Every structure is written in structure tokens, then in C-alpha cells.
Amino acid sequence: MIHVKTNVERPTADAVLRLSKFSSATIHEAQGRKGAFSSRIKPIERSMSFCGPALTVSCAPRDNLMLQVAIHYAEPGDVVLVAAGEFEEAGTFGDVLGNAMKAKGIAAMVTDSGVRDTQDLIELGLPVFSGSVSIKGTVKETIGPINHPIIFGDEIIYPGDILRGDADGVVVVRKDEVEEVIRLSQERDDAERDLIRRYHEGGTTIELCNLTEVLKAKGLLVEEA
């Protein structure tokens, strides 16, 4: 088995930039309510945001050996995505490795395990998303795959798929679907902005969301004043 694959097809920087204009929730809805990671995965600070291709890593629980190998092979703009068995009681990543990522121009770190040194990481300005925060240390023992498909946050992730993360969570977009998802996300964004405008002009939820017949069919009764 080849543990580390370096020949990964990544999306263009322009496609990543255009997708990054949309929120994770907008993208999730626009592509048919798919691609959302488990709601456990959240940023260590709500203002953190990223968009970039996934460099996939599998680590044994409480073991960050292959994470360190992944940082070595990552390219600027990559999002290092670490599947470690959703093991919460381990701080697999902290400020030292955060600075290693920052120095290489890595876009973000995402793990289903724990991280630590969170205040230092926030000050560093590297987006870090994790399943937990834990001060407990790790070992460096187990070899695993890098840039192979992995299961993460209830989704199958392929190397080079685009990950978009913000305060609400993380969503994945297949690299061969990105142009269609950008188009659909723009359409949804435009429709929502128009809906908001109409609310401010006096429209109501029942009227603008076409709920009159739905509520009638369900037998909604309203006591008039």
C-alpha cells in the first residue's frame, strides 16, 4: 500500500475563491442538502472561515504522527482534514503545529478529534475546526494513509474535494461539481436577498412562503380577534 499520495487533482484557485463567497449553509442547501459534516465539527472561534481543497489524513486515535507527515506534504491553500476516529479526549493539534501550517500557507486545519492551545491558535489566525478541545497529549506511533478517501463527519471525502467552513460548520463540494454548485448557490443567494427585501417592504411569511394552501390543507384554525 502506498501511504502518501502526492499526485492530487486540485480545483483551480479561481473556483475556490468564487465558492468561498457563499456560506456553508447556502452551499449545503443549494447542492440538494448534501455534504454537511457532523454538527460536532465547529471552529474554535466563531469568526474563523476557510475554503480550500482537502488533503485527507487518517490518524489512529490519540496519535498525530500522520498529521505531522501531512503538514510536510501539504501545499499552500490546502485544508488538512484529519479523521482520527472521533476520539474527543486528545489534543492532537496545538500552537506549534499551527505555526508550521501557517508558515506553509495552509488554509485550515479540520479534525474530528480534539485540539489544544486554542487561545494561541486564535491569535495565530489559522482557522481550526474540531470535534472537541482537550489538553491531553498524543503519541506518534501509527502509520496511516494520506490523500486517500476517508470517512469524516458522516461524509466520504476524496482528496481535492473542496471544503467550506464558517461559524455554522463545514460542507464538502465534489471537485467535479464545483461549477454547478457555485451557480446553484448564487441562485439561492439571490432568491434569499429578494425575499428579505420583500419582508422589509411589508410581505409576510405566510404570503411569501406560499403557505396559505398548505396550512388550509393541514386544518390550521385561527381565532380571529
UniProtKB/TrEMBL annotation:
Source domain of life? Bacteria
Which terms does the record give in the GO molecular function aspect?
Answer: 4-hydroxy-4-methyl-2-oxoglutarate aldolase activity; metal ion binding; oxaloacetate decarboxylase activity
Q: Which reaction does it catalyse?
A: oxaloacetate + H(+) = pyruvate + CO2; 4-hydroxy-4-methyl-2-oxoglutarate = 2 pyruvate
UniProt: Mg(2+) binding residues = D117
Q: What is its EC number?
A: 4.1.1.112, 4.1.3.17
Q: Which InterPro entries match?
A: RraA/RraA-like, RraA/RraA-like_sf
Enzyme's top EC category? lyase
The reply to whether Manganese figures as a keyword in the UniProt entry is: no
The UniProt annotation places substrate binding at G94, D95, V96, L97, R116
Its keywords, alphabetically, are: Magnesium, Metal-binding
Q: Which cofactor does it need?
A: a divalent metal cation; Mg(2+)
Keyword presence, Metal-binding: yes
Question: Could you say which protein family the record assigns here?
Answer: Belongs to the class II aldolase/RraA-like family.
Quaternary structure, per UniProt, is: Homotrimer.
The entry's function note states: Catalyzes the aldol cleavage of 4-hydroxy-4-methyl-2-oxoglutarate (HMG) into 2 molecules of pyruvate. Also contains a secondary oxaloacetate (OAA) decarboxylase activity due to the common pyruvate enolate transition state formed following C-C bond cleavage in the retro-aldol and decarboxylation reactions.
Q: What is this protein called?
A: Putative 4-hydroxy-4-methyl-2-oxoglutarate aldolase
Origin organism is Pseudarthrobacter psychrotolerans
